[in-house]
Amino acid sequence: MVAVSDSRAFRVLVLPGDGIGPEIISQTLRVMRWFEAARGFRFEVVEGLAGGASIDATGEPITQAVVDQAVASDAVLFGAVGGPKWDALPRARRPEMGILRLRQTMDLYANLRPAVCFDELLDASAVKPELIAGLDIMIVREATAGVYFSLPRANETGPDGQRRAYDTQAYTEAEIARVCRTAFELARGRSGRVCSVDKANVMETGALWRTVATEVGAQYPDVALSHMYADNCAMQLVRRPKQFDVIVTDNLFGDILSDAAAALTGSLGLLPSASLAGLDHTGRSRALYEPIHGSAPDIAGTGKANPIGTILSFGMALRHSFNAPGAADLLEQAVRRVVASGVRTPDIAAPGVAAVSTIQMTDAVLAALDTLSPDAKR
Ligand code: NAD
Fold first, then answer.
1. Do residues 311 and 278 touch, judged by C-beta distance below 8 A?
2. Residue identifier of the C-alpha nearest atom 25 of ligand 1
3. 347 lines ligand 1 (CB under 6 A)
4. Which residues have C-beta within 8 Å of that of residue 277, sequence separation ≥ 6?
């Protein structure tokens, strides 16, 4: 029996977004209701608008009222935003600005991107099966500073008439230290290894990153710290990915390396993510959970979307926001069982294999949860 350590209701803001977002979120809500009925959780769910859906209703990719609700929630469950309907809008008004504004306002500096390989889906990867069998990497990407946010930045015409553009990469030691602490805390619950990735050989920010990561590492003598240059890390992820456990890196390198790690698994629709404001808060900490894929407009409304990435994102919320690692383990085990039993949405089905719908995939996860919890009161 999984014990619920906190009997109060958790406030969850649900932002389905666009495209397949509403389909995968509605199925994840069924899983949340299973945990309420069978495991005694209480979720106060509030639904809001984000992305194109918000633009259509309010003219803005996210309203201040929704941002305020997000900040006041125990967790935000986010679907996906965007689609061709809003592609022609200026950058500041596009659907993606909604999630960027949420990340900044909530100060979600640690983006956790697990890359886990399901052995039954090894053939879906472009990499040799023996290289990725059993793969379980956690990439921790700094997500609120660095080159995507630092000033000055501009795209302008210089005095010589040449167009020129520049960005700035800046980090403070506090920004580096807090995301490193998240990585070390996570490693303690895993195999106890952190690889810090930078370009200390050619970048000032890289040199500071390495110094601060080493200083933080000294406070975690039980965790083994190694350092790697980002270009080597990209190569090692493809050549020998299983050497990694937790990788911690800056915003730009993390953006690229986490996509490369996800591609290793060959299953975009299965992968979750978490964005945290801190693991070490004593009180409530802000957090947002979302699948790593986009709004998949090409399959929206067809019932073909794989809900697993969103369901596992809720699993990360159980672990990191709802103090329930046992419940998170149970949900991950149920998903593994479903994938192992051969239930497939079209995105992970081999050619010629019959595929199930978004709803049927969720039915299978709920049935697996029932099987794994014969004592559940439902
Ligand atoms: P995408 O991830 O939406 O889709 C890429 C491919 O993967 C498509 O063929 C799609 O059908 C498939 N796919 C994605 N998720 C799936 C799932 N759960 N089940 C089955 N198949 C799935 O990426 P894209 O096509 O580059 O972008 C589409 C839109 O999503 C764009 O507007 C983009 O800006 C937006 N986007 C949003 C987010 C976000 O909300 N965080 C992230 C990435 C892209």
1. no
2. 296
3. yes
4. 106, 107, 108, 109, 110, 285, 286, 287
For a substitution probing ligand 1, which of 20, 99, 258, 295 has the most ligand atoms within 8 Å of its CB? 295
Predicted model pTM: 0.94
Q: Work out the number of other CB atoms within 10 angstroms of the CB of residue 25.
A: 24
Distance 272 CA to ligand 1 centre (A): 13
| Confidence check: pLDDT of 254 > 50 | yes
Lowest mean pLDDT among 13-17, 110-114, 371-375: 371-375
Q: Which residues are catalytic?
A: 148, 199, 231, 255, 259
The answer to whether the beta carbons of residues 316 and 292 sit under 8 Å apart is no
Range list for CATH 3.40.718.10 in the chain: 7-109+277-378, 116-266
* Residue 114 contacts residue 52 (beta carbons within 8 Å): no
Mean pLDDT throughout 206-225? 98
Residue 268, ligand 1, Cβ within 6 A: yes
298 lines ligand 1 (CB under 6 A): yes
Query: What's residue 350's pLDDT?
Result: 86
- List Cα–Cα distances, 253 to 76, 292, 310, in angstroms: 25, 16, 24
Atom 26, ligand 1: residue with shortest CA distance: 294
- Residue where the block lists tokens 């977002």: 21
Q: How far away, in angstroms, is 98 Cα from ligand 1 center?
A: 16
**Range 7-109+277-378 classified under CATH 3.40.718.10:** yes
User: What is the architecture of the domain spanning 116-266?
Assistant: 3-Layer(aba) Sandwich (3.40)
82 C-beta closer than 6 A to ligand 1: yes
Please tell me if the CB atom of residue 309 comes closer than 6 angstroms to any atom of ligand 1: yes
Judge whether 52 and 22 are in contact, CB under 8 Å. Answer: no
Place 378 in a pLDDT band, splitting at 50, 70 and 90. Answer: low
Mean pLDDT over all residues of the chain?
Answer: 93
pLDDT at 377: 60
Ligand 1 lined by 62 (C-beta under 6 Å): no
How far is CA 282 from each of CA 72, 279, 356, rounded to the nearest angstrom? Answer: 16, 9, 43
How many A from CA of 84 to the centre of ligand 1? 12
